Each structure stands twice: as C-alpha cells, then as structure tokens.
C-alpha cells in the first residue's frame, strides 16, 4: 500500500459586479520656465548651462524624463540650504548609481545641479553628461521609490538623501491608454493645493487633512473597456475574484475596486490590521492606484485588495470602504492606517466605526528632510534621535519627555512645522495607539515600501499594469511559501533553558519567534518587585538592573494567568513583552497561557480558525452567497497547495475517487482463527465524472495480511494529525487472477476523519479474526456487516 500525503489550506471566494463606461483623455503641457516652454516635438532636449525652471520639482521632472530617454535611472541628491532661514537654495539630481560601492569603480558622477536665483527661478549651474556605466533601453529603466523620512538610524545626511525618486511616497500612478501624458500647464509634478488646505495648523490640536480638488473630472478613456474585460476574464478563470465599479453622474466608469481569491483569503486570516496606501495627486492626468495591505504570520506585507481612484471625494471613499467590506464578507478590521486626508478620515469613521484609525507616520513625516534640512546638515545625529523619540518610546510620558529633550537640545521650540506635528500627535505617534492591535512587529514596519514597489511606476500603462499586478502577487506568494518552508523545515536555535522558549519555538513562525525570543532573553536584564497585593491580583514594578529609574508596571491576575503591562506591547503587537515575561519568571509561570498565543502569528495560522471566526461570525445565516463562499474557500485551499510544486500540481489535476464507505463479511467464522478471512467491500465516489459515479472494490484479508495494512494506516493517521487538514492518497495492490499480470491497483483518497473510522473498523476486524469461535456470541446479523 503506497501512501502520499497532501497538505491543503483555507481560502475563500465571492462574486463581484461590473459596469462599463468611458471617455477620452485630454492632453496637457509642462511649463518649465521662460527658456523651455514646452516639450519639443522630438522630445530630445538635453540639459544645458543656464537652463531655467519655475520650480525644483519641474527641474526634477525634466531630468527624470531625460534619464528615462537616455537609459539610466535618476534620483535626488544633496541640497544646500540658506544659512539665514534654512530654505533650500541648490539641489543636485544624480544618476541612480551615484554613491554605489564607493570603494570600487561602480559609482557614477553624472549629475545636474540647479540653483535658486534672485528671480525665484531655478537655473542649471552644473551638468555632467558622461556616465561610468553602459546605458539601458528606456523600457528597462526603473525609478527609485523615495525614502520615507526619519525611517532608520541614518548615520550621515548623505545616506538619508540617497534613493529619493520621482513619485510621492506611498503612491503609484498608472498612465492610461499607453500614451505619454504630459503635465498640466504651469504645474510641477509635486506642486500642491493652496497652503491652507495642505499644512498642519500651528495651533490646532488635530491634523488639517489634505483637501483634494472636488472639480476634477477624470475618465479611463479607451482603457475603460479593457479594464472591464480584464475583470470579466479574471472572474471567469477564478470564481473567487471580486470586482466592483462605480459609475459617475454621466454613467461613465469611475472608481474601481478588485480583490482576487488569494487576497481575500489573506484578509480572512490576517484582516485584523489594514493599511490603505494612497496620497492625493497633483497631476490630473494620472490615476492613483491604492492598495489595501496587511501583515501575515511571517511579518510580510500581504495584499487584500486594490482600487483605481478617478474620483477622490468623501463619497467615493465611502463607496470604496463599503465595497471593500462587501468583498470581505462584511468583516470589520480591528485597526486601519491611512494617509492624511479629510475625505478618508470621514469615510473611515462612517464605514469602520469600531476600527481604531491612525495616520501613517511615514506620510506625516514625508516633508521632514525639506523642513528640517538645515538641522540635519549641521547635526547628523538629529534624525536618529527624532526617530527614536517617535518609534521607540513605549509610554506617553516617555514620548513627551523625549520630544521636549530633542526640541531643547537642537533649539527647535519655535519651529512651526514640528509644533504642528506635536499638536496632531495623538493621530499619528505610535505610543498613542499602543492600546489597540496594529500587528506591528518592527518600528520600521510600513517603511520598507509598498507591496508593488519595483512593479509599478509613472510610466506603467494599464495593460502593463495588470501584468505587473499579477507578478507582484505571485512574487509575494513565493516569498510566503519560502517562509513557510523555513519555519517547517528548520529548527530555531534556543538561547535559554526555559520551557516557554521551547513552546514558542514549536508554535510561532520563525520571524515571530525571533521577536518573542528577543523579549524572553531580555528578561535576564530585568527584575520584578511586588509593590501591591499578595493574593490573586498583584502589581509589580519591573525595571532593568542597571537603570532602575525607568520602570514599568505589570498587574498579574494569577488564577486567570492574565497580565497587563504599562508598555502595552501585547495589545499593540500581539506578542508578550519582556516585562510580563519577567513577572511570569518570578511567579513560576513556565509556559505561555493559551490566550497569549495569537493564532495569526503561529505556524498554523493558515490552517486554523480565521480572523472572521474569532470575531464570532454567524455561520447560521444560510444563503446562496454564503454557501458559494464556503465552497470557494474549500476549493482555494486545495488550489493553493496544489500549485506550489509540479508534483502536487500533477497530483491535484488527477481527481481521485473518495472513500465513501467500508463494509465487511466474515467467512469461515467457525473455523480456527488462522483460517478465517474477512471480505472487505469499499464503496468509492468518483467526482471526476459528470454526474459523479459510485464504484465498488472487494478483496479478502486474513489475519496475516491485515497486520501490515494496519501498521501502514496507523502511520498515515499519524502523518495526518498535524496539521489537521490533509488528505492521504492510498494505493492498494491486490492479487487478481482475472488480469494478465495477476494483480490490480486501486487508488483513492481519504481525509483524517475517514481514515480514523477506517482504522477503528480494521482494528475490530483484527479482533474478530483472532477470537475463538466459541467466544463469538454476537448475533450474526450484526457480526457479518459493519458500515464505515
């Protein structure tokens, strides 16, 4: 009997709706200054000394286009600031290879420098044309995503400026119709609406969110039909694909949302914390692309759904969020992170009333290097200290003290921009949200870039966009499979003798275990002293041995094994902090209580109960849609596993019969045990036929031939025990005198539960084959036939 074990996982599905519409796009021009008023027809203008631009952004747009045409990638380089007011008066735009591996000869010196003259014009003061490397074709040029500001422990100001690109942080624009679309006349690519609608008020306690133009009329033009055809194609190939399209007042295609089955499955597992990544557009001929993302059990970014936004009003975001919920079976997230936008904020409060909403800190800080360039240039450690203040403080008191210390140290009490950030601190500083779950396992989470980095940029046309979208999805799936493999097939190195560490190593994925292990190891540097209570509930003061002034308060309910820490790390990330673990150590709690092990962080996150079941979804609401979704969920988990390797794919494509029942009859029941034979009758259901058909297989088993079969079945049952959702393919080789070879084969598949019943039946048959005839007092009618 040959055995193959197939692992299958959970999925989900749902249908969507679609509408059509469309109109043509109008063109535009770029006014880059009085010397260059528009793109020449041949588009081959080269930078030259004395060339003028109206703005820094206009110069950057020109150089980026020049770089793309010539065949290299570009980025913003260093800037020079006025000593009087700190404003930028000069800027370098450099080749993407500038500063690369300086110890070798790989760095490229090609660059364009512009300086601000007395007439508020930016003039080219230096141009280095020659590159130290070969050029590539324009189609292969990629643009670097801008670095989020104050996002790491940068050591020098030069390092923090590297990697600045042409797209505002957190947004990609999709070019429609495959045409080169020029910018609106007299506008730079980053020019913003009036200051009052875009700035954080100096004395306001809340963020003044970006107000987007309400009179913008955009259409997809000829690509509207292409978009609809793509959606229909995807839904025909994958019934779990969901899409919805919002029509404008003229019945033309407006905003669009879609989510494939894999993304919806990811939300089912990890949809407790959601991030919407979109920023307002300054170029009315580009269409913002906004992905919904989250974090999986490996700490990786996963996609939940996507939107193309032609209308970014409050009503449109309300429609978008409601549509998103419809696609996700009305399952509300616990928390949601968005960009600074009044329309988004209002829509979130209406559609996600129970979710904790905060503003992305990377979006709030995006102007940091411009606003504080004079400080960064003089004090290289300033960014590090501000980063630590924002990201590494664990209590409100600690943040307030650290913030004031930074302001005093660098004499920034009068800086309007920092004051505006401080006034809005409760909406974006992480410490004010630590009492809610955001699935944060790293202070840099969200900084590493969007899900689609490297796949979509300003030159991406709509047909190309969907190819890149699918590649990004596939790449993400492959990374998740690799992380699954590492977790299952490698053992982590334990650093303590603690039973809790061994328990966590067997439960958590490698990424999450590493985080937990870091917290556990740190307990050796802490001490916990009971300061209140000596009964069921006690309060402890936890502090480092060498820094007793900074202490945390942990309250422990010993009978219920529940602890609360003032740092609120578990509430924020779902991983116990070193302070609670220190209290567990001194109170002799040796293993993690089950309620402190979130299934979403474990090895079995994709095979266990999903977020929706934890939220108490009522499955009793029977409907066609619900039954459809449940069936799609079961089908998708087989498809996910079947596609991982060629072997499992080939096996999955062959639909094997399923074991439906097993009966038997005892022959020679009055003879000695060695001469008795059980005739087994298996009924198999073949779903590969339409309609499905049933077949029977009969064979004999003696006590001798039954023993090895029992051992094999016991081994199969053990393999199916973890994880629970596997199926086994059983191949029986039978002696058959009616065939030329003298034997025949029967293949069928069994689940864990079916195999368990089969194993119990086989054990009973073995007992009957072994018992003496005189001890068989059971009535023959019951003894002759048993049903599985």
From TrEMBL:
GO biological process: regulation of DNA-templated transcription
Pfam name, any one: MULE
Protein localization: Nucleus
MF GO annotations: zinc ion binding
Coiled-coil intervals: none
The keyword Zinc-finger belongs to this UniProt entry's keyword annotation: yes
Annotated SWIM-type domain residues: 552-588
GO annotations of cellular component type: nucleus
Entry-linked InterPro entries: FAR1_DNA_bnd_dom, FHY3/FAR1, MULE_transposase_dom, Znf_PMZ, Znf_SWIM
Segments traversing the membrane: none
Keywords, in A-Z order: Metal-binding, Nucleus, Zinc, Zinc-finger
Similarity comment: family membership: Belongs to the FHY3/FAR1 family.
Function noted in UniProt: Putative transcription activator involved in regulating light control of development.
Protein name: Protein FAR1-RELATED SEQUENCE
Native source organism of the sequence: Carya illinoinensis
Classification of source organism: Eukaryota, Viridiplantae, Streptophyta, Embryophyta, Tracheophyta
